[in-house]
């Protein structure tokens, strides 16, 4: 590269310094300058710059012609020849300088540049190594790439998004309560606080009962217009019955037709269990392959006919091990029919708790939430006050009713506990706020009066087939209004409106 010697150049280094001088020696690795002037004002006779430090280079002057001519020919005639020989070298250096100066836009200088050799530069590019390095540095998951939106969603397996081992809770290890445990406190002392509170509330409760009685008596058409329901599916009219009429139907069935109360109870329990299972999800949910825990039903039963029916229903529900049933008694069971149904219920896998506190503690051990609470404390043939002998009994019933009203789904048999079966007026310090009322054989007049007594919270009314023969209604003239042959045809339960 001796042809560039003597050219005045301006060099810019990568650290920003500017150096001016003449080319003394040039090679691919370094550049040696003479008469060097630095940007900070310093000077040097000779300065060597490595090629790796160069950032930019500009040609600022050409070699002196006189000096160039003496070097080539000592005669004066050869000066012009030397100048002519130096001109192409200057042009080549100028074109080289313009190639490195990106600010130079002279078209003539650009045309004098050599063509870019694409093939030679491609040989310097190793595509295989470059792509291998890119693949190695690529940390993006395959499912997170742009094309992942075309991938179909994976279906979840049966054991995903579920509680692991949900069925393995403490249901089988719940201790069975003693059948002879005293349900009330050991010292049946009078709850003075409860008496004081109830005494202060008696006046307000009496005013409420009187206002409800007055509203029921002054309702237009309440005496002349007979009460009744209509089935939601077929539109068949269904009359209401009094508690005395229901007892008369049961007596005629047993005495004249041999259709005992035990047979009627089994008939009712089968139809009612099918309705409960359908409400709990039917075959879609109730099967052995379901990894979720079985649904839980809590029965609040008393020592009466209504409690016996509820125990029969609990036995039919839990005998297949697809539904869990817990029973809480309001008082000690002493009736022979209730004890018989209780023993059958326990043998079928049902559980019993002795107190509300025990019920709450057992529910905390299970993975099954309470889905249905069955209110079987009263029925149509007695009142809650008949179950209480002192203030402690009343306080116990009030606690059970308050817990019951806090649940999501509450079903009452015949009539919500705490309400009169005929007028639906409150006859106890607290009453159950039921979502549904399950009527036995025929709806009670109290179920019809629930609409007027509680217009904003009227429950659904369902009627369950008891299997009463149609000939029973022709025996007594007071029962002939119940001769409806096409009420239960293909199903054992209908909804009334």
TrEMBL record:
Positions of region (Disordered): 62-81
One GO CC annotation: P-body
Pfam families in the cross-refs: FDF, YjeF_N
Protein name according to UniProt: Enhancer of mRNA-decapping protein 3
InterPro entries, alphabetized: DFDF (IPR025762), FDF_dom (IPR019050), YjeF_N_dom (IPR004443), YjeF_N_dom_sf (IPR036652)
Domain DFDF: 104-140
Family: Belongs to the EDC3 family.
GO molecular function annotation: mRNA binding
Presence of the UniProt keyword Ligase in the record: no
Positions with biased composition (Low complexity): 69-81
Keyword tRNA processing applies: no
Lineage: Eukaryota, Fungi, Dikarya, Ascomycota, Saccharomycotina
Swiss-Prot/TrEMBL keywords: Cytoplasm
């Amino acid at each position: 590269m001796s042809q560039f010697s003597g050219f005045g150049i301006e060099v810019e280094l990568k650290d920003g310094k500017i150096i001016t001088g003449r080319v003394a020696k040039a090679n691919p690795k370094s550049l040696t300058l003479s008469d060097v002037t630095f940007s900070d004002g310093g000077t040097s006779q000779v300065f060597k710059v490595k090629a790796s430090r160069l950032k930019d280079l500009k040609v600022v002057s050409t070699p002196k012609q006189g000096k160039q001519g003496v070097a080539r020919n000592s005669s004066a005639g050869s000066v012009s020849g030397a100048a002519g020989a130096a001109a192409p070298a200057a042009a080549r250096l100028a074109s080289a300088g313009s190639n490195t100066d990106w600010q130079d836009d002279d078209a003539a200088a650009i045309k004098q540049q050599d063509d870019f050799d694409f093939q030679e530069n491609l040989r310097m590019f190793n595509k295989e190594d470059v792509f291998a390095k890119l693949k190695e540095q690529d940390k993006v998951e395959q499912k997170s790439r742009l094309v992942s939106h075309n991938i179909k969603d994976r279906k979840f397996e049966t054991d995903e998004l579920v509680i692991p081992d949900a069925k393995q809770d403490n249901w089988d290890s719940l201790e069975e309560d003693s059948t002879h445990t005293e349900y009330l406190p050991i010292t049946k002392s009078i709850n003075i606080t409860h008496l004081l509170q109830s005494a202060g509330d008696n006046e307000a409760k009496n005013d409420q009962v009187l206002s409800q009685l007055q509203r029921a008596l002054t309702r237009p058409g309440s005496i002349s217009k007979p009460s009744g329901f209509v089935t939601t599916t077929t539109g068949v009219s269904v009359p209401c019955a009094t508690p005395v009429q229901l007892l008369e139907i049961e007596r005629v069935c047993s005495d004249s037709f041999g259709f005992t109360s035990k047979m009627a109870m089994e008939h009712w329990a089968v139809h009612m269990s099918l309705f409960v299972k359908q409400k709990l999800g039917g075959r879609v949910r109730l099967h052995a392959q379901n990894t979720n825990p079985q649904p839980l039903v809590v029965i609040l039963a008393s020592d009466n006919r209504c409690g016996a029916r509820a125990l029969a229903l609990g036995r039919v529900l839990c005998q297949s091990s697809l539904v869990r049933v817990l029973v809480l008694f309001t008082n000690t069971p002493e009736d022979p029919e209730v004890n018989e149904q209780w023993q059958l219920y326990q043998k079928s896998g049902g559980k019993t708790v002795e107190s509300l506190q025990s019920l709450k503690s057992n529910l905390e051990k299970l993975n099954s939430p309470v889905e249905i609470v069955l209110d079987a404390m009263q029925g149509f043939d007695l009142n809650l006050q008949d179950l209480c002998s002192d203030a402690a009994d009343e306080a116990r019933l009030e606690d059970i009713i308050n817990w019951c009203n806090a649940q999501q789904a509450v079903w009452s048999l015949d009539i919500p506990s705490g309400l009169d079966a005929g007028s639906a007026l409150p006859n106890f310090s607290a009453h159950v706020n039921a979502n549904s009322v399950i009527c036995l054989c025929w709806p009670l007049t109290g179920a019809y009066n629930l609409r007027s007594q509680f217009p904003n919270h009227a429950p659904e009314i369902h009627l369950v087939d008891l299997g009463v023969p149609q000939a029973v209604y022709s025996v007594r003239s007071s029962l002939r209004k119940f001769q409806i042959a096409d009420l239960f045809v293909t199903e054992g339960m209908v909804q009334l409106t």
